[in-house]
Amino acid sequence: MADRINGSVCLNHPNTPAVKRCAVCSKPLCADCVQMHDGVPYCSDLCWDNAKRTGLLVKNVEANKKSVAVKVFIRKVIYLIIIAALVYGGYYYYTHNKSKVDAQLKKAKSTTEQKLQEGKKSIEKGLPGDSKYKRDREKMVNEN
Ligand SMILES: [Zn+2]
Ligand SMILES: [Zn+2]
Q: How close is the Cα of 29 to the center of ligand 2, in Å?
């Protein structure tokens, strides 16, 4: 047997070679006596209970916490890579299509300026002379 413990025999069966040691009390155990819980060998329910209440379980909990922290870290790194890729992609697009982007920006700017000018003109002109609102206002002023 590959995982046979050299020279040890089971504490309960002196004629049977031991294959594992109890993770809590280190008793040598044969394949029939060993109890496996979460991949860890124990000699008895007593040792398993002790393990659950003390060190071994704490170690497992810490290992779980660590693996969760690693997962969160990896997720953050992936998000950062995606954001960096988007930013770089935008930058790459801009540098390789600079004239196009600039032309679009210029166009947008001139359109905005044109709209502003039109707005300004229409305010300067005031309301159109034939507007119902203006006629009504003039009528009211004349009546008073
Ligand atoms: Zn034990
Ligand atoms: Zn045994």
A: 5
